[in-house]
Every structure is written in structure tokens, then in C-alpha cells.
Write a structure and sequence with these properties.
The protein is an alpha/beta fold. Helices cover 39% and strands 8% of the residues. It has eight helices and four strands. It has a four-stranded parallel beta sheet, with helices on one face. Helix 3 crosses helix 6, helix 4 crosses helix 6 and helix 5 packs antiparallel against helix 6. It is globular. The chain starts with 23 loop residues before the first helix and ends with a helix.
Length: 236
Amino acid sequence: RYVSSAGNNVKPFLKWAGGKGQLLNEIERYYPFSDGCITKYAEPFVGGGAVLFDILSKYDLDEVYISDINAELINTYRIIRDDIDALIKMLYTMQSEFIPLDTDSRKIYYNEKRERFNDLKVNGNDDINIEKAALMIFLNKTCFNGLFRVNKKGLFNVPMGAYKNPMICDENNLRTVSEKLQKVTITCGDYKESANFIDENTFVYFDPPYRPITDTASFTAYTKNSFNDEEQIELA
């Protein structure tokens, strides 16, 4: 069940606030897969998926379930799994258009893409999910600090970052991610829905949004609906 090949390593395709990439050495101590009794994995707050991709790189499990309440994030996971060729083609187009521009022209291009993304968030339908996923990745790779933040209307509002030569289309990793996601159940919804998947053979990793220490000290605006104290208590 343990996959020893380093060539299978896959990393998150987005930068995500609260991502656990730097803590994997600590978290992996708790992985219970080596004895073969735990054969399923569930991550009900998947976010950027650092732990998910670490586990998918190292283990060949029977079933994997991920979910998140962020519809645009889950759409991107699904498009990478199901429509990788079309997605990569669209990302390469954006990369070839964006990289040669000067800073002022980049800002204009970025703001146009951000406006289009928000329009699709509000008015989109299933026919344009590939474009929405491509825009999600483009904005993540070119916005300030790779931050995903929305306002109270649910609109993405992060300004452009100052990257000189951002890797907008990391084709090799995206294709590896696509391969790893083929057998993964991907759900957009509340973490409680994972209860239907979880059984005595399932390892579950909960990584809910951080609780802000003060009203302004911490970032939690991944969606327009905050994960408040009552929800933290209910999860606990």
C-alpha cells in the first residue's frame, strides 16, 4: 500500500492561506496507513490540499473523499480531474498573454480577469466551469501573496501581486494532480456531509478555518460565510 516512488510526488496547485505544507513532517507522524487496516482517507476542509497530496503521493488507498464549502475551489479540483487538457490550454494562453506585458498593462489584464471571474461566480453555469477554474489558478498565481479572499458579496477582491515571472501553468504538476484525483470523491458542501463516507477504516483530517484572535487579527474570508465560534464548538 505504501508508494515509495519519489516520482509520484505531487504538490498543491494553489497557494492557500493556512496551508500546511511546512508542517507535513509533523502531521505525517499521525498517518495510520502503514499497517493496512486504515484504507480510506477523508479531508472535509480540503483547502489547498497539502496533506491530501502528501498522502496521495505516499499511499495507494481504496477510497479518498475531499470537500470544501468554497464552490470555486471545488470546481477547480473537479476540472483538474476531469478536463485537464482544456484547462492547461487555457492557462498557457493566459500565461503567454500576461508575462510579456509591462506592469501597467498587467494590472489592466489582471483586473479584467478578476472582473470576469467574479461575473462567472455570480452568473456562471456548468458550460464555463473550465474558464472559471483557469481564472482561479491565474488569479492565485498573480494576485498579492497568492491570497484567496472575498468581500461580503462573495466577490474576489485581492489586488495584483508583484511577481516578475509567475508560473501560471505548471503543466507537469497539474497533470500529476489530475492523475492522483481520478479516484477521489470531490464534494462541494458542509463538512458534516463527510459522515456518510467515514467508517472505522477511515483516517480523517480536520483543518477548519482559523478562529480570529481579534476582529482584525486573522484572515478567515475564504467564503462570504464565516466559520464562527458556534460552528467551531459544534465541530469540536
